[in-house]
């Protein structure tokens, strides 16, 4: 997919960017309102500062991991004022997570390692949060059984975030091409992985193995989408036709709201609510019984869209 590029038809191009801030955003199709109103402006100011002093995106991502994990640790305590500090730290961690992507786009400093770190950052935050809630619940009198929903919710979170991120990049690929998307495929990643050796490239090969498995998981949940991407790669190697860009965007854009719901903002708002009422364990049930059905609906809907365009292209 790396060499597949296309132009967006004039009538479907996004509105011309009127500011440097808007240039730091991915796309109006995929941005959530809370992000546009709150996180992106904060992230933009952080990105401006980092660009001025010469800080690159990856260190910003790494710092966000420390703040996010620290937030999770503070959710272990039952004192509300400590939890509030954790909430502020988690909000700041997500602002840094926004800043690293904006900085990468502002400075054109994008990398595969940066994408991997960015995806792993949120996983580190929520591992800490889930562990803290389980330990907190045990202190409150729960048995060790609390780890069962804690682990199930954690696994659910990984799949939810992975698929939301994947579908966003698929959408960006169809409306912006490879320059505006971070869409990867396991076939190309496998080739890169095979060129690395455990002796000379142990660290990078370990990271590449993790990311290859991560991408394969995303692809396994989207078989019809893989067929569509395969036929697109084969039939339109020199550029997508305008009708496909236009129609795919129209049919797929409504699904972007579901990728937002199962990402950071919705889950954190409810997490904060349950921390305020000292019922943090409810977060696990929310992840399993509310967000998982939304994930399933999102995947089924995306597969229907992909099947429609696959059949239309091959016929």
Automatic annotation (TrEMBL):
GO BP terms, alphabetized: phospholipid biosynthetic process
Transmembrane segments: 46-74, 282-300
A Gene Ontology molecular function term of the record: phosphotransferase activity, for other substituted phosphate groups
Region entry Disordered, spans: 1-26
Entries under Gene3D superfamilies matching the protein: 1.20.120.1760
Origin species: Runella rosea
Protein name in UniProt: CDP-alcohol phosphatidyltransferase family protein
Alphabetical keyword list: Membrane, Transferase, Transmembrane, Transmembrane helix
GO cellular component: membrane
Biased composition (Basic and acidic residues): 1-17
One Pfam family per UniProt: CDP-OH_P_transf
Highest taxon listed in the record's lineage: Bacteria
InterPro entries in alphabetical order: CDP-OH_P_trans, CDP-OH_PTrfase_TM_dom
């Amino acid at each position: 997919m790396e060499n597949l590029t296309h132009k967006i038809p004039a009538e479907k191009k996004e509105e011309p960017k009127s500011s440097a801030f808007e240039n730091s955003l991915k796309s109006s199709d995929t941005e959530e309102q809370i992000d546009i109103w709150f996180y992106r402006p904060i992230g933009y100011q952080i990105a401006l500062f980092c660009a001025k002093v010469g800080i690159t995106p990856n260190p910003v991502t790494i710092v966000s991991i420390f703040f996010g994990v620290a937030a999770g640790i503070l959710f272990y305590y039952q004192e509300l004022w400590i939890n509030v500090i954790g909430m502020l730290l988690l909000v700041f961690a997500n602002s840094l997570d926004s800043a690293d992507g904006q900085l990468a786009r502002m400075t054109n400093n994008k990398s595969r390692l940066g994408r991997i770190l960015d995806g792993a950052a949120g996983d580190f935050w929520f591992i800490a949060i889930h562990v803290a809630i389980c330990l907190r619940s045990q202190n409150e009198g729960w048995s060790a059984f609390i780890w069962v929903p804690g682990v199930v919710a954690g696994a659910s979170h990984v799949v939810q975030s992975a698929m939301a991120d994947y579908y966003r990049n698929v959408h960006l690929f169809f409306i912006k091409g490879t320059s505006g998307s971070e869409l990867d495929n396991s076939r190309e990643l496998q080739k890169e992985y095979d060129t690395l050796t455990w002796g000379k490239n142990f660290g990078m090969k370990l990271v590449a193995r993790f990311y290859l498995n991560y991408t394969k998981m995303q692809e396994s949940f989207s078989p019809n989408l893989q067929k569509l991407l395969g036929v697109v790669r084969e039939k339109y190697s020199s550029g997508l036709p305008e009708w496909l860009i236009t129609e795919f965007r129209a049919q797929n854009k409504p699904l972007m709201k579901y990728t937002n719901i199962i990402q950071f903002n919705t889950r954190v708002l409810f997490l904060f609510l349950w921390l305020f009422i000292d019922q943090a364990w409810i977060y696990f049930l929310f992840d399993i019984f509310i967000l998982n059905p939304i994930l399933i609906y999102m995947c089924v809907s995306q597969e229907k869209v992909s099947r429609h365009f696959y059949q239309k292209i091959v016929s």
